[in-house]
Amino acid sequence: MASDDRPVYQPKDAIGAAARSTMITGGAGLFLSAVQNSLTRQNVTGWGVITRTGGTIGLFAAIGGTFEFVRIAAANLRETEDAYNQAIGGFFAGGIVGFRMRSFPAVIGYGAALATLQGVFEYTGGKLDGFKADYSVDQYERKEQLRRNRRRPIEETLQELGEGRGIYGPGYEERRRERIQKRYGVDVAQN
Fold first, then answer.
1. 3, 27 Cβ separation under 8 angstroms
2. Nearest-5° angle of CA 179, CA 180, CA 185?
3. Could you identify which of 55, 72, 102, 182 might form a hypothetical disulfide with 14, taking C-beta atoms 3.0 to 4.6 angstroms apart as the criterion?
4. pLDDT tens digits for 74-99?
5. What is the Cβ-side half-sphere exposure of residue 11, based on CA atoms within 13 angstroms?
6. Contact yes or no for 42/27 (Cβ under 8 A)
7. Number of H helices and number of E strands within the chain?
8. How many alpha carbons lie under 13 Å from residue 147 in its C-beta half-sphere?
9. Confidence class of residue 131 from pLDDT cuts 50, 70 and 90?
């Protein structure tokens, strides 16, 4: 049973997401296969992308589709969205890489490595720049609060930087008129 403090899990379409992920990662595999084909020393035709280095396309497509399907299927079965789903998907996707080595220890090793990588990545926030933002707070209000919290008094800013460059204290126009009058003898009209 779900507790009151957690939202109710909404099942997701694992097959549709796996098909979409297969197409995306298969496209990335096609691109990588084309790069591999263009870097060969022999003069191979354009079909070499499929015939010579086409295994890369299949590998990438299988990894992406397997990861996404297993991740969402695990989430649907467990009825929760957490780092364990990423780790389970990563284990199966890493196992696909290990199959290419034709060794059971490679299947387990690559699976464990990718499971650890994916699980830790999701557990630490799932982003390279930190934790997920709290979307229940209005972003405009949050930024305004940060500005109010970190705003320095204008007197302190003027003392450290001085006037000019878009930073002007109270009475600046009067001081400017006096300074121009004193240096150049020109009267500046008030705006």
1. no
2. 120
3. 72
4. 999 999 999 999 999 999 999 999 99
5. 9
6. no
7. 8, 0
8. 6
9. low
